[in-house]
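User: Can you write out an input/output pair for a complex, sequences first and structure second?

Assistant: Here is one pair. Inputs:
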Amino acid sequence: GAVVSQHPSRVICKSGTSVKIECRSLDFQATTMFWYRQFPKKSLMLMATSNEGSKATYEQGVEKDKFLINHASLTLSTLTVTSAHPEDSSFYICSVWTANTEAFFGQGTRLTVV
Amino acid sequence: AQSVTQPDIHITVSEGASLELRCNYSYGATPYLFWYVQSPGQGLQLLLKYFSGDTLVQGIKGFEAEFKRSQSSFNLRKPSVHWSDAAEYFCAVGLNRDDKIIFGKGTRLHILP
């Protein structure tokens, strides 16, 4: 069964609005979650590390104020794309490590900004 | 700098033929190694992993991979591919448990009928 649940799988929003993406670990607690972005036909690029109860750690070049990350519980991390623009359209995926030393990924969220 | 290299962007094999996808990494120590598969518009599915022990690991869907420390490689193999194996394959490494995963650029696998 699924280890990581990501919601929504697809979202279309208007330019200037904000979109929230949820990443849940199922049946286990995750103090750390990771958010990735994938451009069409490209590999995955780490955006940030989400830390439960503390601030996220962002990779160089990722705008903290545009991509807000909240990890308020041990099973949920959210990524909010604020004031979205068409160039933010992408595939966003979260990841967690399990106790079995496996890194699992969510099913991804296809964001389209129109 | 730490990196993961998948030298083949595209690979085409005939259905029923064997497959090997290459992956090399550049790290100071043996990292956690993964192979993932991604179908169009889908998330990533973990095929197999290695972090210690037997250097030949078995995964799902008939895939296996061999870790070779001397070559810093972790190549993925399958003895007989099926049309449903057509997808994008990513090799990935994590330096430590609970650490970020670094991905190779991926290899697109095409299957000829």
